[in-house]
Amino acid sequence: MEKFNNLTSTAAPLPLINIDTDMIIPKQFLKTIKRTGLGKNLFHEMRYDLQENEITDFVLNKPAYKNSQILVAKDNFGCGSSREHAPWALNDFGIKCVIAPSFADIFFNNCFKNGILPVILSSAEVAELLEFANDEHNSVTVDLPKQEVRTSNKIYKFDVDSFRKYCLIEGLDDIGLTLKKEEKIKNFETRNRQEVSWLYA
Q1: How many domains does the chain have?
Q2: N or C, which end of the chain has less CB nearby within 10 Å?
Q3: Same domain, yes or no, for 10 and 67?
Q4: How confident is the model at residue 43 (pLDDT cuts 50, 70, 90)?
Q5: What is the pLDDT of residues 149-160, one digit of tens each?
Q6: What is the domain-level CATH number for residue 81?
Q7: By residue range, what is the domain housing residue 77?
Q8: How far apart are CA 6 and CA 149, in angstroms?
Q9: Is the pLDDT of residue 80 over 70?
Q10: In this predicted model, what pLDDT tens digit does every residue of 97-138 receive, in sequence order?
């Protein structure tokens, strides 16, 4: 998993509530078990018309926001069915941080496991950020070590669980965390083979 430390990017405003996982990555794209290749289908029904042409006024299709790594949205982001493809699609598109007043629990947890930082700010703070992000030349910095979101004129502080913060900064998913104990695992397996050799017969 890629390490997350400081991120500076144009922030893309998506001022909608209850953005569910089917909006993020529609069900017809859930056939793959790969984490890559889903970015082109992110927000598919909002990004493309029935002929698969880009809808030019959708925010992520606008030239200024096509490379945005920060997404600002409203309440209850990531609600709906439990699909890990949702953070996979965001990550594959290039979104590394989503800022909203609230998130659905399962989506929130899946973000951390896939290298995405979900930042919770108050509704008033998010409203300010959405207005700021409407300027296509905006620049927003997300500083995970300091737990700050910074614009040219304001600093927003956010909370994050210390263990999850450590994992993001170190780039550790569940597999990475397990592999940090690889030596202990090997030692246990060697000792276990000697103590209960009949299990391995």
Answers
A1: 2
A2: C
A3: yes
A4: very high
A5: 999 999 999 999
A6: 3.20.19.10
A7: 6-170
A8: 10
A9: yes
A10: 999 999 999 999 999 999 999 999 999 999 999 999 999 999
Let me know if residue 1 belongs to a domain. Answer: no
Token couple for 18: 């209850």
The token pair that represents 90 in the structure block: 């965001």
Using CA atoms, how far apart are residues 42 and 86, in angstroms rounded to an integer?
Answer: 8
Residue 136 included in any domain: yes
Judge if 25 and 38 occupy the same domain. yes
Nearest CA to 147 out of 130, 132, 164, 133 is that of: 164
CA-to-CA separations, 51 to 24, 38, 145, in angstroms, rounded: 19, 19, 44
Would you give the distance in Å from CA 3 to the centre of its chain? Answer: 13
State how far the alpha carbon of 107 is from the alpha carbons of 7, 83, 103, in Å. 21, 8, 7
Write down the pTM of the prediction. 0.88
Residues 65 and 36 in one domain: yes
Q: Is residue 28 packed enough to be buried (19+ CB in 10 Å), middle (13-18) or exposed (0-12)?
A: exposed
Q: Is the same domain home to 163 and 178? A: no
